[in-house]
Amino acid sequence: MTDWAMIDNNNAIVLPQYWMDANDAPTVHFSVQGHRYRDELAGHLLYEMRFKKCRPWLHAISAQRVDNVIKVKMSEEISIDVDYVTDPGDLGICYRVNGTAADIEDISINGNMINISLSDNTPTNGSLYIGAHGAKKYSDYSNRDGLGRIFGIRSCLRSQHMYWSHTTGRPLWKWAAIQHIFVSNDM
Fold this sequence. Notes:
globular, Immunoglobulin-like, alpha+beta, four-stranded antiparallel beta sheet, single chain, 187 residues
């Protein structure tokens, strides 16, 4: 543990858990297989971090607004996957100005770039949230957002790079880190 924990100024792997297999019902428990998939993916990423000297998690590097379009640069090429992780609304992306969510008209992806089109009257000086918007709430658990691929905080953005499960042969993808990033303005 000391070897990989010391890499990159003591940063460890950023690995969201919303993609893991869970009961997809009001619960706090992931399935055994969900934990196994997370651990297998973490092993792949730790190997890359240790021996390839890179930051292998999927994350936004920068966000810049030009007119009514926010251009987000991701760490690698991404895909939209609404089959494995259900869409919580706007693919799990939200632009907020002073705490108020703006209307997103369109989201498009080209390689490692996300283009987010906003309505014409959207104020500037906001922040972008990935995987932190649109979570469903349970009627009997009003103080929590749940977890997993159907409930809770999540996004539908994943890497195009695929790893494989050693136990099931199932593909494992990196999913976008839950992130809050300031949007610079270039109006």
